[in-house]
Every structure is written in structure tokens, then in C-alpha cells.
Amino acid sequence: MDPVRPATLSQFIENRTYEEIRVGDAAMLTRTLRPEDIQLFAIMSGDVNPAHVDPEYAASSLFREVIAHGMWGGALISTVLGTQFPGPGTIYIDQTLHFSRPVVIGDTITVTVTCKQKFDHNHHILFDCLCVNQDGLKVIRGTAEVLAPTEKIRRPRKALPALIVADRELRYRHLIERAKGIESIPMAVVHPCDAEALKGALAARDEDLVVPILVGPERRIRALAEELMLDLAGCSLIDAPHSHAAAAMAVQLARSGQAEAIMKGSLHTDELMAEVVATQTGLRTERRISHVFLMDVPTYPRLLMITDAAVNIEPSLEDKVDIVQNAIDLAHILAIPEPKVAILAAVETVTSKMRATLDAAALCKMADRGQITGALLDGPLAFDNAISMVAARTKGIRSVVAGQADILLVPDIESGNMLAKQLEYLASAASAGIVLGAQVPIVLTSRADTAQTRAASCAIATLIAHAGRRQRITAA
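The structure corresponding to this sequence follows.
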């Protein structure tokens, strides 16, 4: 009788034939349930039972948390039978399962399959199947009957493709939940006269992030809300005849302290920003105004900030000092105490033929001299070296920033905008956009952005507004 054999990964997959198996022989497999396992099983099977995929529903259900599909454990039994014991050539005949308790995220399940009975006339084998969790508690028990292979099979183990669950909704939740539990702020929403602009403001309201002040043509806004069957409860409306007037009014509300943030609605960026940067009536500070995209990219292990991709067209060295300091200050608000800043260029060496490389070298030296504070800077770095340690090592780059950047400082608006949009549309990144350096944070999203993107941006604006409150209290 063979002892219990744990599953081991080798470069080959090999079976045990009917003749090689004895009654009492066994094999085992251990797996830990991850959130991605539940998501992938739901995608594969189409089983979107809220007990498995809806945390809010699951919290009020019998088990008080998300549980695995029952057949996830059953599939582990099939894995042992099909890949190890007996292995390739095995044909399923029958399976019975009894489920004793649920499997939750983080549970480690050990599957043991034991030969119970052999049938020489047809080469069938009956197996006892047992799944226990990390506490030794029984999860699943049952039996399986298979037609065992009679010929030896040994094949190279096929490498499976890497799978990434691009759950944008979950990643947007992560952005929004950064501001959960703090007091909502009054936000002037400028000209919310299309569906996504109005939905975004109301989504942020429903998340208790902001108290919307809708500034624009009142009759048009109310008609849109009625058409979309949206409730304007909790919102105040300020009538403004057109988008130019709405932008001016929103800036005035921010200057007077009646609004702690501004959100762009269905108007051109230039219309809003012209009022923001107006010398006498705008919201300028001593800092250069700049924009940051916050990107949650499924293939990157940390939140990525890209600046400036929306406001400064071709910033000078002096502009870049403020742009990078704005982003560093935002990183601190987001609880990144010492962000790593990669200053991007097309190459890693400094050359007088490429201004971006000269600016990068100067910015790094300015950081050394305390002209930029609160972060680690390195550059010039090409994009691959900024986000991939493998690429950086291959090129012989030694850097505390390379491969693990938190902030990407781009050379100009064109490169930054293309980079951010590529990550959003080709890499399924969840994004939020915010303007920094003004007296209040400004949610500056694209007219093509969804309500979800706008709500996530409002969460960041709320965090910035509260940081501003704390600074004013400290200064007083």
C-alpha cells in the first residue's frame, strides 16, 4: 500500500495505471481560495449567485460573507483524478458529493482521494473523496467512480497562460473607499447637462463623498434628471444661463468658501480652466496648477500617478518642479509617505539633444538640494524601466525608483495623455483625475468618462479637501 502522495508540480504529467493502483493508495492536493478563484469560476460557469459575487448581499446572508461555489471544491477532486491519481487517460463515470460547510476566501483546502474498491472486469475504480479545511474540519465528502487507464502515459506538463481578472468595478471601489468614513464636502458641479456628468455627481452624493451644488441651467438639469429618473434630493441648484456663466459661478463659490471642490460637467476644459486661472477672480496659488491621473492598473502592483496629462502643454523645468511637488503632496495625502518618482524620457541617458533628459537630471539634483521634497526621484527613465524591475536589471540600471514607481512625470501633455488613455482603454485601468495647485481640488474628467470615474475622482477631491482643512487648522 502506497502512502498518501501530495501533488507536486514537475515538468511532466504522469498517470498510474489500473494495475499499479492498490486499494488504500491515496493522493492529495492543497489549494487556498482567493477572490480571483471565485471570480474566474463565476465567469467560466456563468453562476453569478450573489452569495458568491456580491459582498453586500453575502454580508446579510446565512454565512455573513462571500463563499466559494460548491463545485469549486468538487473541481479540486476532479483535478486530482484527472492529473495525478489515476491521472491522464482517466474517464469519469460517477460522482457523489456531500457538502458539510462553506469555503470562504483564505481557506486552505486539502483534498484526499483514496482507492476504495477495484473492479477487474471493467477496470473501474471507486474512490473515497474528502476535502478538509485548514482547521481539519470536513468541507466535502463523497465518492467517485472512474474508468482507470490501462496504458502508461507520461507527457510534458503544459504551461497555462497567465490570467488577469480585470475587475474594474472592484478597483473603482478601492479608489472610492479611500474616502469612506470622512465627512462629505460641498462640491460645485459645473454645467451637469449630460447623463454621465449628472450621474457622476449623484453617484458621489450616494457614496456620501460630496454634497452637490449643481450650477447650470436649472430647467435643463431638472428635465435631464426627470428623463433619467434620477433623484436630486440633497442637491442644491444655482441657475446659470450657460456653461461660461456656470464656470464663473463655481469659481466664485470656491473663493467664498461655499464649495470646497469643483467638478467639471458637460463643458470644455478650457471654459472651466480659464475661470480657474483668471488673475483677479480665479483660484491661483503660488503653485503651478497641474493635473494628476490616478490609475489602478491590473498588471501593476501599486497605484500609479501620471502627471501632467491634461493641463500643462509643454512645461518648462520650473513648471515641472511644481507639477512633481503637487503629485508628491497628493501621494502623501493617499498615505504614500515617500513616493518614488520616475521622470520619463525615451532613453535613460542624459543628452543635450533631448530636453526631457536634461530636465530629468536637473530635477533629480534639485531634489538632492531640497528644492523638491518628500519623495525619491530618478530619471531620465524610459517607461519600461520605470515600471519593470526586469527591464531595469536587463539594462543594468541601478535605482531605488526603477521598476516600482508611484509617480510618472511625463515630458509633455501629449505623451502623458496618450499614456493614460492607453492604460485605461487597452490595459483596463480604473482611473480618476484631479487638478492640483489651485485653492480647491478640481475634478477634471473627460466628457467621455463614466459616472464611476467621476465618483472615484470625487473621492480623491474629498481627501484633498480634508487635508486642506487640517492645514488651515494647523496654520491657525
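The chain has two domains: 5-156, 168-186+196-210+223-234+284-475.
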